[in-house]
Amino acid sequence: MTENQVSYIIRGSIFRVYNTLGPGLLESAYEAALKYEIQKSGLLVRSQVILPMIYDEIRIDVGYRLDLLIEELVVVEIKSVEMISNLHHRQLITYLKLSGYKLGLLVNFNSGNIENGIFRKAYGL
Q1: How many domains does the chain have?
Q2: What is the pLDDT along the chain (125 residues), one digit of tens a residue?
Q3: Cα angle at 105 between 41 and 124, to 5 degrees?
Q4: Which domain holds residue 102?
């Protein structure tokens, strides 16, 4: 599967989770539900994937974690905040840069309309 095909399945899962749970829960609740929904679609999902930083050819574990990594292709960063800021967008781009993955989805489940709470970010595509 390509990143775009995986992304399409993830988006459908995001809508199912949002329509079932609605806004206002903790990020961890959405992460668990979204992982379950994506797995039901038959895709490989890993959660809280450790993301080391490489600096001057040295691997440094500074505590970064990818919320979800799907099919070793797409990173999903989950938020449940009043408003997505530029910092959240930059965080996902930096995670893509550090990890080498090319596509990420930033999702804010605390949104009045989930369609407006999903942001697609690409790095190196």
Answers
A1: 1
A2: 999 999 999 999 999 999 999 999 999 999 999 999 999 999 999 999 999 998 999 999 888 999 999 999 999 999 999 999 999 999 999 999 999 999 999 999 999 999 999 999 999 87
A3: 115
A4: 3-122
